[in-house]
From TrEMBL:
This is Disease resistance R13L4/SHOC-2-like LRR domain-containing protein. Keywords: Repeat, Signal. Residues 1-25 form the signal peptide. It comes from the Eukaryota. It is a single-pass type I membrane protein. It holds the Pfam family LRR_14. Residues 150-315 form the Disease resistance R13L4/SHOC-2-like LRR domain. Gene3D superfamilies: Ribonuclease Inhibitor. One of its GO terms (cellular component) is plasma membrane. It comes from Eucalyptus grandis. Its main location: membrane. It is found in: Membrane.
């Protein structure tokens, strides 16, 4: 008997070869990072990640938009070249905004050595900020509008790469750790609407890269520190209902890059409206700051000013006609 074996059609062979080649050439996230994501998802309460799909892809709940600046629900990867000149993907960003996450913040972020961005804004996360984050290389941390408690761990001062730290609208408390003064690259520090106490650490004078500092709606004590003058790159400064006392430091005049200055509810010594040298100020709020005397003439020179609020002070004098385009609060 002769048995004939028919060769598969050429097209089938080509499809098989191409499929095999694609599988061999496709880059996969390292197993330890996949396992880290599994633990991170469990801690956060993120239940729709499908680990049968590629975490660096768009299927399986990993996000349909990989643009970090636009997405609200995505894990983003980037390829890096290893010691053997192979291209290997690593997780660089986790953004989970408005996901109704019910869990807590994951200590396991340090197991993603290339992670730069972690944003879990507007969820229901509780518990504390993990001290383990101090061994990461994060650039941006945003945990805004959650239910976090406890204090900011001093270990965050070890994240030498950090650019932005935003913990607004939680239930955090305690004194701010002086170790945050180590963050020489920090551009944004946003602490509004928590229960922080104590004086601002003197070491904050070392945060000379800061452009945006928000301290309002807290329970700080002591005066607004004179070291504010050292933060010469500040463009945004919010000290509204912070608990800090006046007067407004006279050397605030050295902050020539200010565009938005908001200070309110200061107790303490009476003082005059401080001299401000920034021609770029668009919003100036000095509400209930124990200010006395006449309105300073220099206000007329602030041609960029859109919003002015000097209410609940003891000021006198006339409002110049040059303020016709300013929105008074």
């Amino acid at each position: 008997m002769t048995i004939l074996f028919s060769a598969p059609p050429l097209i089938s062979v080509l499809v098989l070869l191409c499929t095999t080649h694609f599988a061999a050439a496709s880059t996969l996230l390292p197993d330890d990072e996949v396992e880290a994501l599994r633990e991170i998802g469990e801690t956060l309460g993120k239940s729709d990640w499908d680990f049968n799909a590629d975490p660096c892809g768009v299927d399986g709940g990993w996000g349909d938009n990989k643009d970090i600046d636009a997405t609200s629900n995505a894990v983003t990867c980037q390829n890096f070249t290893d010691a053997d000149n192979n291209s290997v993907p690593h997780v660089i960003s986790i953004v989970l905004r408005n996901q109704s996450l019910p869990g807590s913040l994951p200590p396991q972020l340090f197991r993603l050595p290339y992670l730069k961005n972690f944003d879990v804004t507007r969820n229901y996360l509780n518990g504390i900020i993990p001290k383990e984050w101090g061994s990461t290389k994060l650039r941006n941390i945003s945990v805004v509008i959650n239910r976090l408690t406890g204090s900011i761990p001093k270990e965050l001062g070890n994240i030498s790469t950090l650019w932005e730290l935003n913990v607004e609208s939680n239930q955090l408390s305690g004194a701010l750790p002086p170790d945050l003064g180590n963050l020489s690259q920090l551009i944004q520090l946003q602490l509004t609407s928590n229960n922080f106490t104590g004086e601002l650490p003197q070491r904050f004078a070392e945060l000379t890269a800061l452009q945006d500092l928000r301290l309002g709606d807290n329970q700080f004590t002591g005066k607004i520190p004179d070291f504010i003058q050292n933060l010469s790159n500040l463009s945004v400064l919010f000290i509204q209902a912070s608990g800090l006392q006046g007067p407004i430091p006279s050397r605030i005049t050295l902050l020539e890059k200010l565009t938005d200055l908001r200070i309110s509810d200061l107790n303490g010594t009476e003082s005059q409206v401080p001299r401000l040298n920034s021609a770029n100020i668009k919003t100036l709020i000095l509400r209930s700051c124990n200010l006395i005397g006449e309105l300073p003439d220099y206000l007329e020179e602030m041609t960029s000013l859109n919003i002015l609020d000097l209410s609940f002070n003891k000021l006198s004098g006339n409002i110049s006609s040059s303020f016709r385009k300013v929105n008074y609060l």
